[in-house]
Amino acid sequence: MIIKKTLEGSEVILALEGWLDTQAAPELQTELENLGNEVQNLVIDMAALEYISSSGVRQVVSAYKKMNGRLIVKNVPESIMTIFKVTGIDKRINFQ
């Protein structure tokens, strides 16, 4: 998986590309752990994400908790959005 990080003021955008699976989830976890207190909003862009496993879903939920709800997940492919809908996560996290 490739993570492209962009900082725009107090907002961080993480663009994910490839597979967010058991092997790649720790990489996203590290990115989330390294977010400083100055980050007010987090955007996860999934436009180029091909697959997400339960480990990846856990990292998205972790990001939501870390940001106290100030998380936007955008450009989610329909196949991945189905997973968020089945788990009910789509009711809590702001998807665009």
Features:
five-stranded mixed β-sheet; 96 residues
Description of the molecule:
The chain is of the alpha/beta class and 96 residues long. Helix 1 (25-33) packs parallel to helix 2. The longest helix has 13 residues, at 54-66. Helices cover 33% and strands 36% of the residues. A five-stranded mixed β-sheet has the order 1-2-3-4-5. The protein has helices at 25-33, 54-66, 78-87; strands at 2-8, 11-20, 41-52, 71-74, 94-95.
Please outline the helices and strands.
Blueprint: E1 2-8, E2 11-20, H1 25-33, E3 41-52, H2 54-66, E4 71-74, H3 78-87, E5 94-95
Parallel strand pairs: 2-3, 3-4, 4-5
Antiparallel strand pairs: 1-2
Helix pairs in contact: 1-2
**Low-pLDDT segments:** none
Helix content: 25-40%
| Total count of strands | 5
Any idea what the radius of gyration is?
Answer: 12 Å
**First-last Cα distance:** 22 Å
Q: Percent of residues in beta strands?
A: 35-45%
Computed structural class? alpha/beta
Provide mean pLDDT, rounded. Answer: 96
Number of continuous helical runs: 3
Question: Secondary-structure element sequence?
Answer: EEHEHEHE
